[in-house]
Predict the structure.
Amino acid sequence: MPNPMLSIRSLDVAYGGLRALRSVSLEVGQGQLVTVVGANGAGKTTLFKTISGTVAPLAGEITYDGRNLLAVPSAERAQLGIAHVPEGRQVFASMTVMENLEMGAYTRNGRARRSELMPAILELFPVLADRRNQLAGTLSGGEQQMLAIGRGLASAPRLLMLDEPSMGLAPTIVDDIFERIKQVHRQHGLTVLLVEQRATEALEACDRGYVLETGRVVLEGPRDTLMSDARVRRAYLGM
Amino acid sequence: MAPPRASLHRSYLAIGAFAAGYLVVGVLVRNSYYQQIMTLVLLWAAMGLSWNMLSGYSGLISFGHAAFFGLGGYTMTIAFVKFGLTPWLGIPLGMAVGVLAGIVIGITTFRLRGHYFALSMLAYPLAMLFVFEWLGYQEVTLPMMRTAPALYAQFADQRIYMALAMVLAVACMVVSLHVERSRFGLSLLAIKQNEPAAEAAGIDTLSWKMRAIMLSAAMAAAAGGLYAVVLLVVTPQSMFGVATSAQALIVALFGGVGVYWGPVIGAAVLVPLAETLHAELGHIIPGIQGVVYGLAIIGIILLASDGIYWRIHDRWVPRRRTEPDAAAPLGAPAPAAAAAASAVPAAAARPVAAGPALLKLDGVVRAFGGLKAVDGVSLTVAEGAIHGVIGPNGAGKTTLFNVINGFLPPDAGSIRFAGAEIAGLRPHGVCRRGIGRTFQVARAFPRMTVLENVMVGAYVGASTDAEATELALTALARVGMERDALSVADGLTNNQLRRMELARALAPSPRLLLLDETLAGLGHEELEELLRIIRQVNASGVTVVIIEHTMHAMVKLADTFSVLDHGRLIAEGPPAEVVRDPAVIEAYLGKKWMAHAKPDAQHPVA
Amino acid sequence: MTDWQWLLIDVLQALAAGLLVGGTYGLMCVGLGIIFGVMRVVNFAQGDFMMLGMYVAYYLVTGFGVLAFLGPYAAPIVGAALAGPVVFVIGTLLHRTLIARVTGARVVSAEAEGHYAQIILTLGVALVLANGGLILFGSQPVSVQNPLSRESWEIGLVLFNQARTVSFAIAVACALGLYLFLTRTSLGRALRAAADNPIAAAYVGVDVDRAHRLAFGLGVGITAVAGGLIAGTQSFQPYIGFDFVITMYAGVVLGGMGSILGAFWGGLTIGLVQQMSTLVLPYQLQNTAIFVVFLLIIFFRPQGMFGRVWERT
């Protein structure tokens, strides 16, 4: 793929004393929605943490917009336009919905485009507008997930990364969330990297996908190739 | 731990040499001020040893040891001043009062975690300080007994006090020495490293903590009583003040935490330094003592956080490196046969175990707030089986283990093991019944040998240290690490750590083993090795229940699966069946997966 | 006047005194609350930073008389206010050189003791500060000359010591100012975010290490201002910090560890408890009452009034 926005090559990461990722390579092209699926323990979250800088790799390269991302300190990666919506929502529970969104706009880009982004986010997630002054800790799981995504969008990102947005949510709410993600992707041409355990929804939404199993990429390809491929099932269930 | 006799004798010799040498120097010193400093060194060594006994060994950092010190000092003083009781009896009385305080404080404060524990411990002596000030004991001077002063522990020659202090210090050292080398010390260390794991290994953590605080309080109270006898003046500040608690802590941390020489080194360095500086410069620079202690502890925390003793020990004492894993540990089949055996899926290589039910869960429920993490799970584990518990993330697997293991009581339902109900037992009780458990994060005691690490688990099944050693060695043989028994655990590879953890769980010869993600993140060869070990363990009669995410390993290992999703059991049966069950596929991959399912020409024949 | 009426006056007086004292205590606790809320550090030296603030105010107003030109009424106030920035600078310096080495995201501890390294380090700092203060300032108790400390306003039959009333007003104003900073400014929000969820804060681009340093400096600075205010109403000496450690923690724990503003209410309540306890207890035991309350909270409601139950993982 010529000039991908994000390019990862031969990434080797150890985390918690374990070899979490082995020689992982993947690419995210501008404007694409790329999905990485895999069972728990496959290394998905470690991949995320390496991109955001929480974890340092043993070997490999990460290139973002042509620059070496690994040379950028993790506190600055947000300023480069990478929004990270973490696993488990991680909202600021003691702050209100609006304050959470304001925190999303902490980056330079976010501050600059605040006046156009905030209304757009509230329109995308009307329930957040309804609850704007409520403490984030009192929201339901699905609402918190929407808040986390909204917070990510508030930073005016070029790359939106989502780490297991379905975790802990009921299936109908998961459908709703995925709909919004697809909507954002379609309407604004936002580049999305989606990491998920629930393969079906994630693969349905994507343009291209990767399947991780015990730290390795075992399958990759466009959406239609991956959907319902038995090898995906084997990656999750072992046989 | 049963070290060879020579080693214990060597420690006694060292202590004796230290005591003799010290007293010789003391006798030779003419200046009574220096003699007093030497006495104070020994008293603070005893106080540091007392702090070590509770906080150094168990990790429960106490900022309030002055409470026991002060109670000991004031009991003796009040008994003397008000009732004419000689300090020879007053000090033991003070020790008894200290122990009582230790019990009360222990029962109330041990259930507090982390910072709350530290802050409460800080509060106790300060509260006592205010009370004693209010009671009018601003400053109490011990009366001089002109007739028969020796009967009241009053001596003209300071060196006799030094000898008394030496007796106390040596007594504390010997007690500490024995604690360190016994299951007492090992249990405290286990609590310090990883309290839940210690509980699961059969250690009654509350009981050991209570014993530690009682012993610690007795030592501190004795030190307080003797301190009052030596100085002849008692004030609430000097007995209960923060500086006293701080000094006990600093002396132990500076010299070496968790080892009986530590407080002695700390006292021997810091007390003379502080006292001499105070004597020389105290009139120009008041408070120099506090600065010395403050700088000492800042320096140690930043530079050598375990204390001087360990810094020297780690540098000079050579450490036996563990050997890289050998291909064929003792008792294993020949490598070729082993490789062949592990390549075939488990289902074909072994008969399906169909023993009687060993573990039976019936309608177990466990909720957190409104969320049911385990929602009416009933399952049966047959004796002799390898039973896998699988399910997507958040399905409730670890909660289920924690309920079986005793960390969480079930809200409803029963758990029967070998016919007897175990729901509601604490983890060490569950362990005693014969259920062992490994944890996801395997933590070794880095400075102890592999054998000692495993003995922690062995104690629950052994009444003597020798028995525990036996059991530990047997367990190590079962995982193929008996040659590493005497190597220091620091520097083990990940694989070796897991096997050691397995050995610890196996040491008391459990009937059932709960394995919590033992296979996570291993490379191919390491995985095969561990699978082989688990199969061997199972073949020798241990029923295994295992939670895992690495499915391609699990399908080879387990006889049957129980699949959980959202706290409920959704499927059960042999791996080949379960993995094709639509409900299971849906749980893992999403409900629309089956709708898109393409014919699968490649799935392996079971 | 009947006995009941005298009793009522006594109660009202105790309430008034408690309120006034409580305001300053509240500000003191807020400083600790910031440090604990953002950094999760138990700072033993907090009382000693307060002591530094007291001496800064003293030297500015009385000792060196730098602020004498402001007149005897304004000088103590300005002195107390200036104590804040001075101690802020000292605090951030100390954080950068010492505290940061044992706290923060970078620290990974293998031994269980590592968890306590920061408490013990701050204990060391407390000892050095208190005794260093003894060396620098001498052991003679001093106080900031404040003509208002001898005057009282009278409402009904209840006396309001003027110095304490002014201190109360300033303390409340400071707390209010802090509240506005934390809720209305971007930097303040960033601090709250770092306190609430450091992981997520890092993800949205907050420099958590810098936030910690700011929080430490701000925390000790605010407590120093409270100290400067107290310095005008009572005498003190370099060891006074230790006297206040438990009071401060009682307030923070009562308000809820982790709730920066809850700490103010906690401190206020502690002040009330202290003064009200003199109605039933002898004067010397007023601090014991605080201890008892402190222990009761820890045992029965560790999350305090406004905090969430948290566990350090």
Observations:
- The interface with chain A takes residues 186, 189-190, 192-193, 195-197, 199-208, 258-259, 308 of chain C (CB under 8 Å).
